[in-house]
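TA notes. Do not distribute before section.
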Amino acid sequence: MGFFDRLANIWRGFLSLWISDIESRNPEAVYESAIDQRVRKHRDLKKAVSGIVYLRNKLSTEMEQKERDLKDVMKQIPIAVEDGEDEVALVLIQKKDELTGHIERLSAELSKVSDQAEEAKRGLISFQSEIEKLKREKDQMLAKKANAEARIQIQETLDGLSTEADIKALDGVREHIDKLQAEADIGSEIQGDSLDAKLAKIREKAADSSAKVQLEEMKKQMAARKAAVAEGGAASVKKTI
């Protein structure tokens, strides 16, 4: 292999890699191109199938006409024989044989073309199904691509976050909350030893003592009233006796 041949091979290799890279980064365009190519082939195939169908219909029409002609000749032959027109009868018989042979050839050709037409139509339908399948595949693959890209982007975002920074931030928040809690605890502890707290305790005790004195006084008054009522009742009973 010569130098220029090797150089050409290398260039084709680079070109192939470049095209592959472009195709991998533009899957939608690749799918659209493949679908368009199949649509064009389907259009060409449809024209070919229509040509076969046209030939089949033409042969069928021609054979039907020949069969009608044969029926007419078959009706004319007995009449010519009966009328003694031997020359006419011979011409009609020759025409009958020609029509019969022609119909046989048309029938064989029509059978062959009809089979081709049916096979072509099945191929056309199958090709159309392949196009629809490729369209569905395009939608599915593009959806998978979008989902994978989103997941990769999320993962890259998470990977880009500094774990140490997160830990430091959490430690700072925890320390701040602990300091606030300690400040609240100190306030509660100091509040119990303050002058205001002591005065409040004294006032509570004084109020409690005053309430107890009043309660005892009320109990004594109620007991005195009950005793007076009892003595008054006893005196009334003595006078009655």
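Switch to the second chain here.
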Amino acid sequence: MKTIVPISSLLHDKGGTVWTVSPDTTVFDAIKLMADKNIGALPVLAHGVLAGIFTERDYTRKIALQGKTSKQTLVKEIVSREIVTATPEDSVEECMKLMTENRVRHLPVLRGEELVGIISIGDLVNWIISAQEATIAQMEQYIAGGATA
């Protein structure tokens, strides 16, 4: 299903809250925030600018598997600094392609240098399922004679 709907529409439906941490946050506190908010990634902001993204994958690979402690390690020591981002004007399809090609599950959305949201692969899948269900419902209504051509 091709779509030209901008990601800003998905962000609008999702809501505007973006949870972030600073580079000097302990990994423990970042993981606790992610657990409390039921999210899998946190943008890392340094002086209001996106400096990285901290994910569950960062924790498992860079803390748990390397024998470090989350209470003594700071986010800035393990954060992913190579960040793939989108703009509010990018389409849902473009964002899915970016995420697939770069093997990332979370995509910060920037307007210039301002972080305006973050989307997950789950957000995109849910949006596509909803769009498909709406299209199917319209087709069924048309076939049943409930809509005009």
